[in-house]
Amino acid sequence: MGNLLEHMGIERDRLHFSWISSAEATKFVDVVKEISEKVRALGPNKKLVKDYN
Amino acid sequence: MEYPQAVPLKYGINPEVCLKLTKDKCGTCEEVCPANAIDYTQTQETITLDAGAIIFSPGFKPFDPSKFDNYQYVNYPNVITSMEFERILSASGPTMGHVTTFPKLPAKPKKKKDKLLAKKRKSPKRIAWFQCVGSRDMNKCDNPYCSSVCCMYAVKEAVIAKEHAGGDLDCSIFFMDMRTPGKEFEKYYQNAKDKHGINFIRSKVHSVTEDLDTHDLQIRYVDELGQIVTEVYDMIVLSVGLEITPETKELADKLGIEMTANGFCKTDSFEPVATSRDGIYVSGVFNNPKDIPESVLDASAAASAAGDALSEVRDTMTKQVATIPETNVVGERPNIGVFICDCGSNIKGVVDCAHVTEYAKSLPYVTFADENMYACSQDAQDKMVEQIKEKKLNRIVLAACTPKTHEPLFQETLKNAGLNKYLFEMTNIRNHNSWVHKNNPELATQKAKDLVRMAVAKAALAEPLKEEKIDVNASVMVVGGGLAGLTAAKSLATQGYDTHIIEKKDQLGGEALKLFKTAQGEDVGEKVAELIGAIEANEKITVHTDTTLEKVEGFVGNFKSLLKTGDKTCELEHGVAVLATGAKSSEPTEYGFGQDDRIITALGLDKRLKENDTQLDAINSAVFIQCVGSRETDRPYCSRVCCTHSVDNAILLKTRKPSMDVFILYRDIRTYGERELLYKEARELGVIFIRYEVDKKPVVVIEKDKIKISLNDHVLNQPVTLETDLLTLAAAIVPRKDEKLANFFKVPLNDEGFFIEKHAKLGPAEFATAGVFVAGAGHYPKPVNEAITQGRAAASRAATLLSKKDNLFTSGTIANVNVEKCSTCGVCISICPYSAPRFITEGRFEGKADINAVLCKGCGLCVASCRSGALHLRGFDTNQIFSQIFALGEVV
Amino acid sequence: MADNDTKIVSFLCNWCSYGAADLAGVSRMEYPADIRVIRIPCTGRMSPKFILSAFREGADAVWVSG
User: ipTM value of the model?
Assistant: First the structure.
């Protein structure tokens, strides 16, 4: 999946997979923060986006 | 509220400090409470309940270490209890899960003295745990018993602390015997040692002193070689034991139930949850110190015991709920009603709920939107029903808290309004929004709007779903006629269910027939015979001895099993199954077993004791070796029962002939709970305990007149040689490892071959497969009383299911097949972990896939795997998920 | 990129990560408001189509968590 997206010009850091048990709230927050940071660093995604105009 | 998991999760007023109640001042809470829930006039009420049985579960109190002057819990800020440490590790605790020194100070101290101390706060580099604080101690306190849980929780706390802090935290546990006899506990202990690098030091620390400036703690102890060691730690955690409170003892006295000298309830090994008073049952730590799984088993067992006693009056006081006919909405244009919950200030304090409500009105198909202060309150629910009826709403969206706890409540509301309960969509603007973005109201409001829009888009596509009624055959098959199986069968038959016991051997009783006495001194043979008598006399029970299970088909409520007795086979239809196949003693492969009659297993000694073998009186010396085949690399679990068994038999030998020299060679003595008293008694009688290390095992040499055993004495640190006439080996308990049976019911086995239960803590007597239950040593080695408790617990879980037989339904959110599109590829059949899809074998759609609604758990794995698009997951259908994605993409 | 622009479409398993998210809320933890949760019964329900579609709809990232 990551390869396919990269092929289409979507950076790897835009797709994340994780496994968190329902008791791991701290891990959940850490993962959200991590993804959010990475994505903000990449800036908005422009590839593949449907053009509404 | 004492803790965030309190049930009900509501605030209460402490009347001792409330200014309004004590001085008639203040009253602020009444003014600010938006729900008008404050009522100062409420007083204590006496309510009289008529009950047929009482289940007494008063619990325990952690031991208060204040009186131990050598550990200075009161005076040293860095000495804390394990319970306090547990809170520190919690993500919702005072430091959000970060371990820091001076944990007893408030997070933001106000007093000057505390402020100064708080400046010295640091992340600890070295933490020590002291075991047996308030347990196994008659010196400084009066608790001679073992609290059963502290070793394991200390190991757990050390592992979590280390995982959290990373590599440079040094954790040491000071202990006497490491007691990890629970299922999977020994592996956890070994991992803590080998993988996490936790230090285990076998010593009791005698004094702690504090550095006046840094408040670091210096401890002194004697190591295993007898040297005095001084070390400095940043923090000390006292592993406090479990204690029964004076209030509990008083209440127990009032109830007229007998207690042991330590205040625990006195119970019989064969009726382990019955108190001395008829009709009063007991569970939890009051019924001896125990961990979570054993407490849960106790609870279920107590329910079964009470259920047995009250079986005649079952369902005589049940009230029927009137059902409201369902409105047919198929084909109607969606009329979506959106309800936004303020949750008091929980949501409204952050999210602009009025704005979100207005916004919701602008969304497609939404014809009504309203804001509620507390959507879950009774009056709001009643209002919602009226609004649904009045506005003829046919899809409902609720933006509130989590569907995981509240969806069923609101689905009930829909039913009351005559709507199918699946025409409901809930979106979480509290747990996932207002609570986690409280400093960013604007973003939170925007997010709430997005979430509502997504939910509305999904709800528009919601269809009414049907729940199929499950027909339940109210009969039971118990596999295994040992103690656990017999107990389960007896309880279920008493509650009125036809029960069949399948036993491979020619007689009932199982391994218990080989046991002499229980740890409490009851004669096992006598009691088992009584139980078998009761089983045979019970008309509801059919016993199939010499019988094996050849085939099992079906699912919960509708199993069909093929039984084979000799050459004859017969089919048995049953609704549930209890697997109680037990375990057995292994054949030792070391210490000269099999080469000499004087070397026997624990069961071999029981046999001779049972037969009252007079040769035992001729013996001058007896030796027991523990952990024979347990706690080794290829069998990495503790067999749980052997320490108590050997100690008990040592006492029997020593009482028979006081001049006999009796030795127990052990690694850790694991006489948990009040079994510890036996260990104490054995030592007082003069039984000698010598510890050995697993890499320096005793060496046995067989000579003509004596057996010689040499090992290193741990106290003298010198080699010793014992001469003996009788060597008893505590052979490991091994499971039957019946893979065929496990496959029949699709239940898992662990690496060693024990059954894996549904949940290690909360589902210890049932399997993940619905309608299949587990009891006895097939789950894990266990003594008589625990096998019986689990047998009762399995019966209780089974009865819970059977008693609902007239209103048991499948879930509506399951997969279904569009046969037109199905290409008969079979991917769904091979991928489903629950065996729900299968090919239709006859009729028009022969060869196409079909989903068994009872087996389907609604995970959607097959739906995602279907290449033809023939599978749909109701309630989470592909178009519904797409609609949510599209709704998110819509430019607002 | 401004704070309120990022959109992370998050597919959370009802039994695992969705529960963790609930607990994070109960524990009053704080995290960036970028995620938009779609509750799925199990990560087995996921299909690549959902991921592609999310990007097509303008998601800046997709997160699948079991």
Answer: 0.95
